[in-house]
Amino acid sequence: MKLATLKDGSRDGRLLVVSRDLRYAVPAQAAGTMQQAIENWMAVEPLLQAEYHALNAGEAAAAFGFDPKAVAAPLPRAYQFVDASAFLNHGKIMEQAYNLSVKKTAGIPILVQRQGDDFLGPCDDYPFPTAADNCDFEGEVAAILDDVPMGVATADAETHIKLFVLLNDVSMRAHLFRELSMGFGFINAKPATVFGPVAVTPDELGDAWRDGRVQLDMRVSRNGEWFGQPNGREMDFSFGQLISHLAYNRNLGAGTVLATGTFSSPHYREVGSACLAERRAVEMIDHGESRTPFMQFGEVLRFEMLGNDGQSVFGAIEHRMVATEVVA
Amino acid sequence: MKLATLKDGSRDGRLLVVSRDLRYAVPAQAAGTMQQAIENWMAVEPLLQAEYHALNAGEAAAAFGFDPKAVAAPLPRAYQFVDASAFLNHGKIMEQAYNLSVKKTAGIPILVQRQGDDFLGPCDDYPFPTAADNCDFEGEVAAILDDVPMGVATADAETHIKLFVLLNDVSMRAHLFRELSMGFGFINAKPATVFGPVAVTPDELGDAWRDGRVQLDMRVSRNGEWFGQPNGREMDFSFGQLISHLAYNRNLGAGTVLATGTFSSPHYREVGSACLAERRAVEMIDHGESRTPFMQFGEVLRFEMLGNDGQSVFGAIEHRMVATEVVA
């Protein structure tokens, strides 16, 4: 099943059911918003599935053409957004290039609490104050969870994954090292986050969802040029491991968005990277200097995943970086 | 004006208007939930004020006795919860006792993104898995903000503070140094957060709200014994400075909860502390060892602030620490 959220002027938008081929959509009848659907998933999911099947069969009378420009993030705001750094290869390259030393503990995943109040849709312009902030991107996938009880076992944790989404974890590198070295995670380093057009249930991924990983290429391009396509199979922790660590000593409320961290592959020389910082770090290691510039105003980014059937899973994020208008 | 949220079995509860003396409450007519009130504050606030005045005048027909045990956190869940560490004295004592070195930048406040999906009410039992996690408390105040535009100036930022709340930022110290030294903020170190019974508009504080600080004592007791009463005037950053730093490069969504960090005073030998870690650090400095134990199951904590008129501002947080029931 594929779901999206139509921008309708409200803060939470209007839940849509979207056809598998992403050509058609219809307003969901079983729930008005994504948050309502997640909170009542047991009751709502079979009804939404029935609407999805009717839409795919060409039997939804209210169907209209699906336009990714008309949608918000599938979950337009979240009571919890946690980002992992679950591809250890990424950290390894960064530490090597910049002589960093992150004090990791073996077997404990890196997770960071993030803001859930400022999510952008897949084609929204992305405003930021100055290119001097060293604007970067990170191609990621996130799970959306229903209620997770404190102390959930890793073996049970993945039953709480109701949907997956695609995201660009936009990062301002000029603030990142300073904030990281302080210890308290990210504030100015990680402003608004951009999400792909639709959320999909795990069954839509077929075989590609296995071992707790979304085993598909993250296809990233910059201004129409190929940038990289690392695969989700390279994750060093499964979603189950991430969830059980997060829920060790508290309940997680329905609608938690839990992201993987930037996709990254040890075979980066063949498959490239999903963020600028990593390519710049490889250049630093190879040439003693970084050559690929950070994002400038007017540049366009694109992120997409194709399923094993060649069909776009989430639709594409395709957005432009723009200068913030002065507001104060 | 004082507002609270009645537990009614729903996730967001039912908004209450509470009398100034905290003796009576009445269901709000102008908004069903706190989040709805904050999102529509301009329209809703005058109506709520009228209900408040009627209640205080004994003219609210539907009034009933206010019971802090029957309420949830005033905002039971939040799309953004950020905690500052705005009393630099606290960090200074911690760094001295444990030979830490937090890489602060002068003039930039420490802020940390936190989870907004698991807030507890003022008298809820607080479950945690094991006393070996070194359970601690931190007495704090938070502002609840309406929509804040990107780039807001410090001088304008405090106009976005609609309410203040009291909180106990429960901390598991066994995880804290490990997570802090990794750089990515807190996960297992900061589980559920406990909030005081009512939220109050800034005017309820009178003179005590000035220079961007809530200038009242944070009265903390443990098992009925005085623990400390540091004053909010000791904050090294104003709320305006914290807000403008947070909003530097993005919009903040209505309902952001922005907390001060644990109250702390350079005169700690007279006024005590608002957290165990700080008292233990002072003991470490004085005696070469910490003597005050962390929280055990069954212990009770109490936090309260009295206004300059001697009246309890927020009502009291008074909760008991208990062992988590095995859920998985």
TrEMBL record, chains A, B:
Keyword set includes Glycoprotein? no
Q: Which source organism does the UniProt entry give? A: Vogesella oryzagri
Q: Where is the Fumarylacetoacetase N-terminal domain?
A: 1-77
Q: Which Pfam family is one of this chain's hits?
A: FAA_hydro_N_2
User: Where would I find the Fumarylacetoacetase-like C-terminal domain in this sequence?
Assistant: 84-320
What is this protein identified as?
Fumarylacetoacetate hydrolase family protein
Q: Tell me the GO molecular function terms.
A: hydrolase activity
Give the UniProt keywords, A-Z: Hydrolase
